[in-house]
TrEMBL record:
Coiled-coil residue spans: none
Biased composition (Basic and acidic residues): 409-425
Protein name in UniProt: O-fucosyltransferase family protein
Annotated Gene Ontology cellular component terms: endosome; membrane; trans-Golgi network
Organism per entry: Lactuca virosa
Acidic residues biased stretches: 625-635, 672-684
Transmembrane segments: 17-36
Alphabetically ordered keywords of this record: Carbohydrate metabolism, Fucose metabolism, Glycoprotein, Glycosyltransferase, Membrane, Signal-anchor, Transferase, Transmembrane, Transmembrane helix
Region of interest (Disordered), ranges: 409-441, 614-684
Pathway: Glycan metabolism
Membrane topology label: Single-pass type II membrane protein
Membrane among keywords: yes
Classification via InterPro entries: FucosylTrfase_pln, GDP-Fuc_O-FucTrfase
Compositional bias per record (Gly residues), positions renumbered to this chain: 653-663
């Protein structure tokens, strides 16, 4: 019996082994199957660009004349020649003293806010440190440290920026230390150091007469900055050097942490790999901005409610004045709402950018997200963002090693806190007692998900640790987007105001581009004008006629230059960094061709560039005429959007979204279609 049983067992275990081997084999075969599938998947896209198919972007192009002498190419991508003599020059001009080392004056700054607010606040903090001859302690960025979600590897400033580069770049301007001296640290911990909550429009006078005396008495002050800055944007003429200091901080000293920098560079490489120029587009559709400007009705359903929720919250806190319900269409027609991705798509197509133009969508938050972006994806084939150009592994790596929150904080309540409250309730107090607290509401708030709480509650739930962590990640995403936007061949902002009515992320990008590469195309759209034009074609959006397209083209062309004047009025008084000209620029001594008189009035740069910058203006004698030609030039496709894309090949409207190629039409058909289109337009 025993032997029998033993035999059975042996057979059983043998069977197990066979089973296991079988399992392994089938797993292997499955694996190879996947490999093959993957392989053939890339093979199939043979006409497409191959090298980067590991990302979700599969570029599809038609052959186009990309020679930069082509007239159309110049109009779309060429430099704005009239700004050619404008050069970055943020170095001190007159005598500039070395930083004074008053060893007993420290300024400690705590900054709250989003990416663009942090950036301008740091610049202001540096200026104030110099103004007061104080040593600046590396600012603390609250949005990262206060969320315990980020990796322990980083301190707050170093999470985003490169500390050493910051200190080295400012060595001639101010003294910077990484932390307070020991004696003062103790005082800080005991909350004994005087603290100022400062506004973004604070004057130099305030610092010299209110903060300085306290600083001298206590050796240290703390500035709490939650307003997107702590020094007024316009400074009196005798403080012009301080404006240039702002530029040096923003454009030279503030570089991102190395890992972030590297990933952004990688993304730029991948964008440029197909050998074509690209557009960066920042929709600027953040929930706060939409709420502040009363644009809720441009959205539907839960999105509208979410925006209104926010607006109510803002009204209660006095951040925004007015009624809760606002006629969003009036706001839109007034240019007070972001341009929707669809509108941007239409005007870009009208300007002449073809359907296969590479467009990078920037922004840590595109509220209403995918739904609003669908029409845009339908208009342009190669729309990408940071997620389509990186692997999730690459993104995870820049976050650093993070504690595994998912284990510690289960997504579904009951939470630890709630349990504790229950315990406390059970054991304390007298009877009879009030009812126990209601159970914590499960929360479905999610960055891009369905915002389930809206229907149930008037109060938005507190942020969870995971959300705080997402906010910290958002800073890194925006850092990457910032670099891509600054380097882009063309930049288009959908909106230029943030959730406090001030210049936003895109404004900083525009300022940076104006400083660093004034000739690169940055469209300063007049939203009111564009909204007006959109109204004209609202009942046949995709079938505009020649006249309309021409008028859009001329508007866009004007927005490259003529709107500089208005922008300097509208933005400069709110944020110096959004328009750092003329203080931080100089005029390169001109040769033939471009002349100063061509510069718009707003750019009253009087200062010639120092000799070491060289004299050659790139433009050659003949170019000037070409430029004038270009202004008149209306070459390029006039047919809009899906039907016709100029050049030799074509695609159809591709049904839902137009993805994945289309039928080819013969040129004859195409011409007929174009004619038809024009006739259609003429009829209306
Ligand atoms: C800072 O130092 C400079 C140079 O020594 C001096 O002219 C200026 O008055 C000082 N400012 C303050 C606020 O101490
Ligand atoms: C708010 O609404 C009321 C009535 O609807 C209107 O009279 C008033 O002008 C509105 N206020 C603002 C600031 O729009
Ligand atoms: C339109 O916008 C301007 C500023 O851009 C503002 O002064 C004006 O009050 C707005 N008008 C309406 C009707 O909202
Ligand atoms: C072109 O379209 C615009 C807007 O739809 C319309 O107002 C205009 O009359 C049209 N012009 C011609 C010549 O058809």
């Amino acid at each position: 019996m025993k032997g029998d049983a033993g035999g059975k067992m042996i057979i059983k275990s043998k069977l197990k082994w066979v089973g296991l081997v079988g399992l392994v084999l089938s797993a292997l075969s499955l694996f190879t199957h996947f490999l093959l599938a993957r392989y053939s998947y890339t093979e199939e896209g043979i006409t497409e660009y191959q090298a980067i198919t590991i990302f979700s972007w599969r570029p599809i192009f038609e052959n186009a004349d990309l020679s930069s002498n082509n007239k159309l190419y110049k109009r779309l991508w060429g430099p704005v020649r009239r700004l050619e003599s404008l050069q970055p020059h943020a170095k001190p001009r007159a005598h500039y003293s070395v930083p004074v080392s008053e060893s007993d004056r420290y300024i400690f700054v705590r900054i709250r806010g989003g990416f663009h607010e942090i950036r301008s606040s740091i610049c202001d903090a540096v200026v104030i440190a110099r103004l007061l001859n104080a040593t600046l302690v590396i600012p603390e960025i609250q949005s990262t440290t206060s969320s315990k979600g980020i990796s322990a590897q980083f301190k707050s400033f170093a999470y985003l920026y490169n500390e050493d580069q910051f200190m080295a770049a400012l060595a001639n301007d101010i003294l910077v230390v990484k932390t307070l001296p020991k004696t003062l640290k103790g005082a800080r911990r005991k909350k004994e150091i005087p603290s100022f909550k400062v506004l973004n429009s604070q004057s130099p006078y305030y610092y010299l007469h209110h903060v300085l005396p306290v600083l001298i008495r206590h050796s240290v002050v703390e500035l709490v900055v939650s307003d997107g800055g702590c020094l007024q944007a316009t400074l009196p003429p005798d403080l012009e050097e301080y404006q240039r200091l702002r530029c040096r901080v923003a454009f030279h000293a503030l570089t991102f942490r190395q890992e972030v920098q590297e990933l952004a560079t990688k993304i730029l490489h991948r964008l440029r790999a197909p050998g074509r120029p690209f557009i960066a587009y920042d929709p600027g559709m953040t929930r706060d901005a939409l709420a502040y400007h009363g644009c809720a009705e441009l959205f539907q359903d839960v999105h509208t409610e979410l925006i209104q929720h926010r607006r109510l919250w803002m009204l209660k806190r006095g951040i925004v004045k007015g009624n809760l319900t606002v006629d969003s269409n009036t706001q839109r027609l007034n240019g007070s709402c972001p341009l929707m991705p669809e509108e941007i798509g239409i005007i870009l197509r009208a300007y002449g950018y073809s359907w296969d133009t590479i467009i990078y969508i920037s922004g840590g938050e595109v509220f209403g997200g995918q739904k609003k972006l669908i029409p845009f994806h339908a208009i342009f084939e190669n729309v990408v963002d940071r997620t389509s150009l990186t692997t999730s592994w690459e993104l995870n790596r820049i976050y650093g090693r993070e504690a595994n929150l998912v284990d510690k904080y289960p997504k579904t309540p009951p939470s630890a806190e709630k349990e504790m409250r229950h315990e406390a309730w059970k054991t304390s107090g007298q009877r009879p007692r009030p009812l126990p607290p209601p159970p914590a509401r499960p929360k479905s708030y999610h960055i891009e998900g369905w915002w389930g709480w809206v229907a149930e509650s008037d109060n938005e739930p507190e942020s969870t640790v995971i959300e705080l962590r997402t906010n910290a990640h958002k800073l890194l995403w925006e850092a990457i987007d910032y670099m891509v936007c600054v380097e882009a061949d063309v930049f288009v902002p959908g909106f230029d105001r943030d959730g406090k009515g001030r210049p936003n992320f895109a404004s900083l990008v525009m300022g940076h581009r104006l400083y660093q590469s004034a000739t690169a195309k940055s469209f300063r759209l007049d939203r009111k004008e564009i909204a007006k034009r959109m109204e004209e074609i609202s009942d046949h959006l995709y079938e505009a006629n020649h006249t309309w397209i021409k008028s859009v083209r001329s508007h866009l062309r004007e927005s490259l230059l003529d709107r500089l004047t208005e922008e300097s009025k509208a933005s400069k008084s709110l944020s110096f960094l959004s328009f750092p000209v003329p203080e931080c620029s100089c005029l390169r001594s001109e040769s033939k061709g471009a002349s100063t008189s061509q510069l718009p009035a707003a750019i009253k740069v009087a200062r010639s560039c120092p000799a070491w910058m060289g004299k050659d203006v790139v433009s050659r004698p003949g170019d000037k005429e070409n430029e004038d030609d270009l202004d008149e030039d209306d070459s390029g496709p006039f047919g809009l959007f899906f039907r016709q894309s100029g050049g030799s090949s074509n695609r159809n409207n591709g049904g839902g979204g137009g993805r994945g190629g289309g039928e080819m039409m013969s040129s004859k058909e195409e011409t007929q279609m174009e004619d038809q289109e024009e006739m259609d337009g003429g009829d209306r």
